[in-house]
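Q: I'm building a small set of examples for a reading group on sequence design. Run inverse folding on the following structure and report the sequence directly after it, with nothing in between.
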C-alpha cells in the first residue's frame, strides 16, 4: 500500500513540474528550482543536514544547496521523485513515511499556493487524519514562542492543546490548514482564530514553525 508520504511526494513533483523552475514559492526568496535543490540536499547530503536545524551550520548547507542549482531543474525533480538513495537515513524502513508526509505536503502547497489563482485541494479524510497526527507531533515546538495557551480545533471538535492554563487562543480549521499555519504559512492557511483580542494579537505576531 502506498504511504501518504509517497502520495504527497508525487503531488509535490507534479506541482513543481507544472509550475516550472522560475515559479515563485512561499519559501521567501526561493523559486521552484531553489526548492527542488533543497529537497534533494535534504535527502541525499547528510553532511549538510545539521544546517537545516542549527544556525551554526546553515551557511555550509546553503552553499551545498546552491551548488545543486547548477543542475537542470528536471534532473532535480527526478531525484525528488525517485526518493532517497539506498544508504540515506530516509531510506530506512518506515522513516520516509514518518518524516516526509508533513515536509512533502507543506512544500507542495508552497508551490501551489504561490500562484495567484490557487485553490485548496479536496483532501480525503484519511489523509487529513494522517496530517493531524503530524500536527500533534510538532505542536510543542511550533507553538513554543506563544505566551498564551493555544487550542487547535478541527471541524469534528477534536482538539490539540498546548500551553498553560487560562483562556486559550483557538485556531479552527481542517488538519491540513492547521498544519500549514504551524509551519508559518499563515498568510495562506485557511484558519479562523478566536480568543481575547490582546491574546489573538500576540499570537498573530508570533513566528510559527520549527
Amino acid at each position: 500500500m502506498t504511504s501518504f508520504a509517497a502520495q504527497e511526494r508525487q503531488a509535490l513533483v507534479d506541482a513543481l513540474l507544472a509550475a516550472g523552475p522560475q515559479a515563485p514559492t512561499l519559501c521567501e526568496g526561493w523559486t521552484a528550482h531553489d526548492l527542488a535543490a533543497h529537497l534533494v540536499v535534504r535527502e541525499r547530503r547528510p553532511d549538510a543536514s545539521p544546517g537545516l536545524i542549527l544556525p551554526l551550520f546553515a551557511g555550509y548547507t546553503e552553499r551545498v544547496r546552491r551548488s545543486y542549482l547548477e543542475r537542470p531543474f528536471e534532473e532535480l525533480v527526478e531525484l525528488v521523485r525517485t526518493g532517497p538513495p539506498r544508504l540515506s537515513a530516509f531510506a530506512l524502513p518506515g522513516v520516509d513515511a514518518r518524516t516526509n508526509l508533513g515536509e512533502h505536503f507543506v512544500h507542495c502547497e508552497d508551490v501551489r499556493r504561490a500562484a495567484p489563482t490557487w485553490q485548496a485541494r479536496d483532501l480525503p479524510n484519511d489523509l487529513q487524519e494522517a496530517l493531524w497526527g503530524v500536527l500533534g507531533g510538532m505542536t510543542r515546538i511550533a507553538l513554543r514562542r506563544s505566551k498564551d495557551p493555544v487550542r487547535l480545533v478541527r471541524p469534528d471538535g477534536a482538539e490539540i492543546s498546548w500551553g498553560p492554563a487560562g483562556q486559550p487562543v483557538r485556531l479552527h480549521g481542517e488538519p491540513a490548514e492547521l498544519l500549514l499555519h504551524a509551519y508559518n504559512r499563515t498568510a495562506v492557511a485557511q484558519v479562523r482564530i478566536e480568543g481575547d483580542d490582546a491574546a489573538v494579537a500576540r499570537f498573530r505576531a508570533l513566528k510559527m514553525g520549527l
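Residues 40 and 80 are 6 Å apart (CA to CA).
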